[in-house]
Structures are given as structure tokens and as C-alpha cells.
Amino acid sequence: MPSQATQTAPDRPSSSSKNSDARCLTPVTVKQLKDLSKVGESGISIDGVDVNNIVLVGIISKIDNAVSDCTFRVDDGTGWVECTKWPITDFNEIAHHFLECIYVHLYNTKLRPRMTNATDGMTAQPQVANSYSGNHIMGYSYQTNSTNQFSNQYNTDEEQIRGISSMVLQYLRRPACLASEMGVSSDIVARELNVSVDKVRKTLDFLASEGLVYTTTDDHYKFTDA
Amino acid sequence: MDTSSPAAFVNGGLLRMHVGRKVRTVIQVTRSDAGSVMGKSTDGCQLVVRGSPPAPLTSYVEVIGVAENESSIRAELWTNFGDSF
């Protein structure tokens, strides 16, 4: 897992990170950092995962030696960034770093949205470079918020389903719903969330196919981790 | 930040898909002349890299440059990757 591999070795180039208590290190390319600053968020995140300390590998293209510190420009083929430098002696580090970037990126965007929240009794896959907290699911490519606002920006059916999925899952994970043996009917979910029954049914079908919910009796659904 | 010329990672097989564009790859040097270097790509293809290699040249070298055709690159930047890679 990437989090194991990123024990900070002294000869790894690294960008100076913000003062933070993050326990994880994320491999990134300069392009990913550039996309971050375009969004302009105050809390930095990549692929839905909070990022503080990063690993960056590239070529030194400019050096500036000052009395108290040394600033360098690191160019990794996707862009450049000013940072502090440590030397590379094993060039396999370069290929390894980019492969890690690819792996972690794919993991966070493809695999993590399928995971349920880690609760007792459920084996949770280790989080990748993430300080994971709360009951809401992070890592969804669509930034659904935890209110019940149904935004009008979703156009296609599939986008709508994904938009509602998070709301429906949250509803099914309420203690009352978890406690109920029979689960919750799709009518009730639709009424409570103020969404059409048709959309809720489609969403529940989708969630069931992902293994996140299951049917108990006819048209009654329960969250899988109850 | 400057991402105006990102170089795509390629091997011998992928080079043909990026002809005319900036690419980067590591090759194992098989022959080295004054104006070009012949080497084996990561997937076993014979590639020609035109330009001025650094001296001395190690066994493995990463080149970043423009793909001229499916087996040739015009290098802009060479980086020695050592003898064990």
C-alpha cells in the first residue's frame, strides 16, 4: 500500500509542507499540484483525499543558495515547482514515484468510492493518504454535500443516481434504519429525502449492485454494514 | 507553474502514438555515436535517439524530446540513469 512505501527517506525530494498533523504522505506530480491551486481551496485535497505532506520527484532546473536556506526549482516533466531538494542516487526512485502516483490516484478515484465506512466488524481497506473521519463517505468524484439539497447541476440519469447515492446511503445508515430488521422501503426514503421514488429505486438498485445495500423483503432495503 | 510542455511516458510500442509530440523514456544504450544513440526500449524495441548525449554516457539514459517517428526521438534533455536500473 502506498502509505507503507512512503516512510520519508532522507534522500527523497519533497515539497515543504504546511504545518500540519497529517500522518500520511502522498506522491504527486507537479500537474496535480497545479490543478490544486486552480481550484483555490483553503483545505488542500487531491482526488477527494486531504493532502498535507507530499512526495515530488523531478529534475533540478534552477538553484538558489541563500544563507539560511536553499531553494530549487524541480521539474518533473509535468511542470515545475519551487521547493527544497535532496539528492537522488537510485534512479529507480523516479519510475517508482510515478508508478506510485498512478496507483494512488486510481485507488482514490476508483476503489475508495466503493468502500463503506469502517465500523466494528467490517474489514476496512486501509485508507490512502487520508485522515478519515466522520460518517460521510469521502472520495466520491462528485462532491455531494451532506445537506439534502438536490442540486440541479446533474444532467444525465447516471449523474443523478450518483448524486443521490450518498444521500440515500446516509439515510440508511441512521441508527433507526440500521436497527430496523426489515429495513426501509423505497417510498419512505423518497419521501424523507424529497426525491422521486423512481430515482430512489434506481439509486437503490445501483447501490445494491455495488454491494452497499441489500434487500430484505419486497422493496425494503438495508445498509450492508448493519 | 509551467505545464506548457508535458512529456508523455512512452515505450517502443507507444512511441508511434506520440509522433511529433514531446515524450520521455529510458533506454538501455546499445550503441553510441557522435550525433545519435541507439538503444533498447523498456519493451525491447530498438530506438534511435538523435542529439548530443552527455559524456560519459551510462548504460541507461532517460531522454526527453520530440518523437520523430515510431522508432526515433530527437532528444532535448538527457539524464544518465546509471548502470543498474
Automatic annotation (TrEMBL), chain A:
One of its GO terms (cellular component) is DNA replication factor A complex. The keyword Magnesium does not apply. Keywords: DNA damage, DNA recombination, DNA repair, DNA replication, DNA-binding, Nucleus. One of its GO terms (biological process) is double-strand break repair via homologous recombination. It is found in: Nucleus. Residues 1-19 have a biased composition (Polar residues). The keyword Cell inner membrane does not apply. Pfam families: RPA_C. GO terms for molecular function: single-stranded DNA binding. This is Replication protein A C-terminal domain-containing protein.
TrEMBL record, chain B:
This is Replication protein A 14 kDa subunit B. Keywords: Nucleus. It is found in: Nucleus. It comes from Gossypium gossypioides. InterPro entries: NA-bd_OB-fold, Rfa2. Belongs to the replication factor A protein 3 family. Its main location: nucleus. GO terms for cellular component: nuclear lumen. Gene3D superfamilies: Nucleic acid-binding proteins. The keyword Nucleus applies. One of its GO terms (biological process) is DNA replication. It comes from the Eukaryota.
